[in-house]
């Protein structure tokens, strides 16, 4: 059997869908699995032992070149998909874009969410088996597995996160950089400030207070970032550490996976690096304001999810007049206590 997974974006959502791979292989060890994803996230999946082929979409690049190139590029991908003659397509995205590729893939069985589960209603036109979700499918990872079970029954229980293999070459580079920075001792902690929405962010001054307290304990937190705005914030957080923290150089996605596999703890908001850390079995402390920790957060004993205690949270708002109040509801002390629970060495006094 040949199966195509359609999970195009974003980084955290792609990571959340990884347990589907293990489930499908348990249901049919001979199954061949391909994945359709945005090009920027393709390195996360390339070389994965459970994936035969990664189809990379370049939608952003095509749109920049004009609508004609977008049409040409889209049609080219569709032709490639149809040549594969898939038996089953799992549309784990649930929007109009994923629906287009699902519908035109040519697969006889196209599994998607029902009306209550799709993100955009035109997606309903693409599937010919629509799966209703139950209360047990509240977590985003469970939603993906519900579709996988409907498409290929009989598999075993899947892991809560991953599997996500670590590239050996990327890991060797990370080990060399850690040695160069004198970061070979324990514990190693990554702090990741950034996320996609302003209302998901934990306030920068809270990060500054946290890094100062960690520096007082003699720790050298690693500050990761993904764009210019996040780099600016990382530099301000670095300044609060009085030179103890390390601003990590931005590398490839495979190198980020390797770094997050190598450290002892990752702290961040509802963001891709936190979910990657969970997929490589690294403990996490994650902060949730407008999104739902029970739906999006890493699961299991190695992970602590902190949810804002306002009655309106989670609200899914990208702007809010109570943004400052909401951000302050999770204190530095709460985060530090959670970190110490998962990494007892952090509880010791300087």
Automatic annotation (TrEMBL):
Major location, coarse class? membrane
- Pathway participation: Bacterial outer membrane biogenesis; LPS core biosynthesis
Reactions mediated catalytically: an alpha-Kdo-(2->4)-alpha-Kdo-(2->6)-lipid A + ADP-L-glycero-beta-D-manno-heptose = an L-alpha-D-Hep-(1->5)-[alpha-Kdo-(2->4)]-alpha-Kdo-(2->6)-lipid A + ADP + H(+)
Which EC class does it fall in?
A: transferase
Pfam families (UniProt xref): Glyco_transf_9
- Keywords recorded for this protein, A-Z: Cell inner membrane, Cell membrane, Glycosyltransferase, Lipopolysaccharide biosynthesis, Membrane, Transferase
Q: Which InterPro entries match?
A: Glyco_trans_9, LipoPS_heptosylTferase-I, LPS_LOS_Heptosyltrfase
Known EC number? 2.4.99.23
Q: Which GO terms describe its cellular component?
A: cytosol; plasma membrane
Q: Which stretch is the leader sequence? A: none
The annotated topology with respect to the bilayer is: Peripheral membrane protein
What GO molecular functions are on record for this protein? ADP-heptose-lipopolysaccharide heptosyltransferase activity
Return the similarity comment: Belongs to the glycosyltransferase 9 family.
Question: What name appears for this protein in its UniProt entry?
Answer: Lipopolysaccharide heptosyltransferase 1
């Amino acid at each position: 059997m040949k199966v195509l997974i359609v999970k195009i974006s974003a980084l955290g959502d792609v990571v959340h869908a990884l347990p589907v791979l293990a489930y499908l292989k348990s249901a049919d060890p001979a199954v061949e699995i391909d994945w359709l994803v945005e090009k920027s996230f393709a390195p996360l999946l390339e070389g994965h032992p459970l994936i035969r082929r990664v189809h990379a979409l370049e939608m952003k690049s095509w749109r920049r070149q004009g609508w004609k190139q977008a049409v040409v590029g889209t049609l080219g991908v569709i032709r490639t998909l149809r040549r594969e003659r898939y038996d089953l397509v799992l549309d784990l995205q649930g929007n109009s874009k994923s629906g287009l590729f699902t519908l035109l893939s040519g697969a006889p069985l196209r599994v998607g969410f029902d009306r209550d589960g799709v993100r955009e209603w035109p997606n309903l036109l693409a599937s010919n088996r629509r799966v209703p979700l139950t209360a047990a499918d509240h977590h985003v990872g469970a939603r993906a597995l519900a579709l996988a079970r409907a498409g290929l029954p009989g598999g075993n229980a899947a892991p809560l996160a991953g599997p996500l293999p670590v590239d050996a070459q990327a890991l060797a580079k990370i080990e060399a950089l850690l040695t160069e920075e004198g970061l070979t001792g324990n514990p190693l902690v990554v702090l990741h400030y950034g996320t996609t929405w302003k209302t998901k962010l934990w306030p920068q001054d809270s990060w500054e207070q946290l890094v100062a307290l960690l520096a007082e304990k003699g720790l050298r937190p690693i500050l990761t970032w993904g764009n210019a705005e996040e780099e600016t914030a990382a530099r301000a957080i670095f300044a609060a550490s009085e030179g103890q923290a390390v601003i990590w150089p931005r590398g490839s996605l495979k190198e980020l996976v390797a770094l997050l596999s190598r450290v002892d703890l990752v702290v961040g908001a509802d963001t891709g690096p936190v979910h990657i850390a969970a997929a490589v079995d690294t403990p996490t402390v994650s902060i949730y304001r407008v999104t739902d920790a029970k739906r999006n957060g890493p699961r299991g004993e190695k992970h602590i999810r902190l949810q804002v205690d306002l009655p309106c949270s989670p609200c899914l708002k990208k702007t809010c007049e109570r943004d400052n109040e909401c951000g302050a509801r999770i204190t530095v002390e709460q985060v530090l206590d959670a970190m110490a629970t998962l990494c007892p060495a952090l509880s010791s006094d300087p």
